[in-house]
């Protein structure tokens, strides 16, 4: 791969800070209440969800431009869950929810979602590693 951009961020744990090298991202981190934390600060799952949703929506836009499909009213939400996995560690799962306009109902919307999932860099990175469910709303 020939890198077009490299993001650099440093963090010091789930109850510390995450800071990007250019200073655009500087966030306190904290465990969510459901994991025993006080909920003060964001967490890695929220950051991953935001990045994945943004990337997926942009990937859909790229495919739509090629196919001359209007996706101006599309909204993508990523739900990233963390939980215990079978080896006693932790694992992630993702549900990608796409709100599609009426002209993309049915098979046209499903095909666009599947093509987006095949094209999106985040989807490529997760493929075979964590379960990703695609949902049309």
Could you characterize what this model shows?
The chain is α+β, with helices and mostly antiparallel strands and 137 residues long. The protein has helices spanning 44-67, 107-119, 121-126, and strands at 9-11, 17-20, 26-28, 75-84, 90-99, 132-136. A three-stranded antiparallel sheet has the order 1-2-3, with no helix packed on it. Strands 4-5-6 form a three-stranded mixed sheet, covered by helices on one side. The longest helix has 24 residues, at 44-67. The mean pLDDT is 95.
Key features of this structure:
137 residues, alpha+beta, 3-stranded antiparallel β-sheet, 3-stranded mixed β-sheet, 6 strands, globular
Biggest β-sheet: count, sense, barrel?
A: 3 strands, antiparallel
- What is the arithmetic mean of pLDDT? 95
Estimated helix fraction = 25-40%
Sketch the topology as an H/E string, one letter per element: EEEHEEHHE
Q: Uncertain regions: pLDDT < 50 for 5+ in a row? A: none
The overall strand count is 6
Q: What's the gyration radius in Å?
A: 17 Å
Strand order of the largest sheet: 1-2-3
Structural class: alpha+beta
In what range is the share of β-strand residues? 25-35%
Q: Count helical runs.
A: 3
Q: Label the overall shape.
A: globular
Question: How would you concisely characterize the structure shown here?
Answer:
The protein has 137 residues and is an alpha+beta fold. It contains 3 helices and 6 strands; from the N terminus they run βββαββααβ.
């Amino acid at each position: 791969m020939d890198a077009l951009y490299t993001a650099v961020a440093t963090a010091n744990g789930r109850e510390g800070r995450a800071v990007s090298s250019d200073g655009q991202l500087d966030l306190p981190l904290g465990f969510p209440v459901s994991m025993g934390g006080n909920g003060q600060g964001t967490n890695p799952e929220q950051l991953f969800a935001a990045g994945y949703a943004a990337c997926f929506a942009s990937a859909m836009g790229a495919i739509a431009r090629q196919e001359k499909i209007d996706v101006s009213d599309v909204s993508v939400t990523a739900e990233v869950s963390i939980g215990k996995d079978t080896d006693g560690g932790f694992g992630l799962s993702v549900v990608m929810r796409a709100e599609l306009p009426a002209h993309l109902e049915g098979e046209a919307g499903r095909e666009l979602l599947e093509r987006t999932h095949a094209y999106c860099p985040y989807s490529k990175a997760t493929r075979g590693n964590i379960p990703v469910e695609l949902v049309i709303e």
